[in-house]
Amino acid sequence: MLPYTHGGDILTAQTVCGGPVLDFSTNLNPLGMPPAVRRAAAEADAAPYPDPLCRALVQAIAAHDGVGPEQVLCGGGAAELIFRLAFALRPRRALVAAPTFSEYEAAMNCVGCQVERYALDGAASFDLDEGILQAVVPGVELVFLCTPNNPTGRLISPGLLRRIARRCEDTGARLVVDECFLPLSDGGGAGLAPALAEFPHLVLLRAFTKSYAMAGLRLGYGLSSDGVLLETLGRFGQPWSGSAPAQAAGTAALTCCPDWPERARTLVARERPALAAGLETLGCAVVPSQANYLLFQAEQAGDLKKKLLGKGILIRSCANYHNLGSRWYRVCVRDGEENRRLLAALKEVL
């Protein structure tokens, strides 16, 4: 069995601690799944094959994101689309930030791609800087960026993103920007969707996983003005990759409760400062976050994840992120009572 290196492995955590677990390891909407979305998934007719073209869902996405239906491709989560990109494009050389979401590099490794990492400076809150422009050189075929970045919670400035997109157009690189956490970040915003026509080499990754707490349903989508690319990616996905319950849930999310991420941002804006301050009081170095999660360093803590699991709390170890290490951890922002429970447990073990 392959090792599982992400957050959210609740079954293993429950087996280890022998009881219920409070999960801070996954960055889902702290409000949970909207009731209307849960009903839509439960009531979907799962007997026949699902719509292979996801027509109702594509129309809902296009209307919500302000794009044309022909610019939308649905898949079984953003992670599936990352691997589709790898197998469809088979790049020989790719560029990623460090630290960032591990599946970009994992997908590239599957096709023998040489991956170059642009190291982010911890002293500058791991913000992406102008130096990335010099790293996008001829020969780099694919560039992966994430805003807000996972696990740092830092947004990439819109101006810099556009300059990177222009640089990629000039060098012939495909730019993939992961915006999955954008709806839960400070300000939300339309992201780069309005710039799709301007940058044909641009691909945006979005998902319902985080914004609507639908991780178990596996539903994401890509946006691009390159119709040939989307058609190619469609051929590299398995048939019926979007189940009927997932399609129904996604359509309900965008049509019945489009303000759900905004409501979560209000909660996060209220609770995140208190959680960050509590971590700092306990001696942790916290990266200032613009998202619904916090990256922090705990020196002299030993295996903090293991210690907290003994108290029924699961956090994300960031030891497997490049440019971090075994003293780095990530926690999501939950409601006040749950955050206080985390801080109380941390106080006991630190």
Describe, in plain words, how this protein is organized in 3D.
The structure is a single chain. The chain starts with 9 loop residues before the first helix and ends with a helix. Strand 3, helix 5 and strand 4 form a beta-alpha-beta unit. With 350 residues, it is an alpha/beta fold. The chain has 2 domains: 108 residues, Aspartate Aminotransferase, domain 1; 222 residues, Type I PLP-dependent aspartate aminotransferase-like (Major domain) (Aspartate Aminotransferase, domain 2, 3-Layer(aba) Sandwich), CATH 3.40.640.10. The protein is built from 12 helices and 13 strands. The protein has a 7-stranded mixed beta sheet with strand order 2-8-7-6-5-3-4, with helices on both faces. It has a 4-stranded antiparallel beta sheet with strand order 9-10-13-12, with helices on one face.
In short:
With 350 residues, the protein is of the alpha/beta class. It has helices at residues 10-17, 35-43, 55-65, 78-89, 103-110, 131-135, 158-171, 227-235, 244-256, 260-281, 304-309, 336-349; strands at residues 22-23, 72-75, 93-98, 114-119, 142-146, 174-178, 202-207, 220-223, 285-286, 293-297, 313-314, 316-317, 328-332.
Count of separate DSSP helical elements: 12
By CATH, the superfamily of the largest domain comes out as Type I PLP-dependent aspartate aminotransferase-like (Major domain)
The major pleated sheet works out as: 7 strands, mixed
Residue share in helices?
A: 25-40%
- What is the gyration radius calculated from CA atoms? 20 Å
Distance between the termini: 33 Å
Beta strands, count: 13
CATH topology-level name of the largest domain:
Aspartate Aminotransferase, domain 2
CATH architectural category of the largest domain: 3-Layer(aba) Sandwich
Catalogue the unreliable spans. none
How many domains, as an integer?
2
Biggest sheet strand order reads 2-8-7-6-5-3-4
Shape, please? globular
- Encode the helix/strand succession as letters: HEHHEHEHEHEHEEEHHHEEHEEEH
Q: Structural class given helices, strands, pairing?
A: alpha/beta
Mean pLDDT figure: 95
Q: Strand fraction band?
A: 15-25%
The top-level CATH class of the largest domain is: Alpha Beta
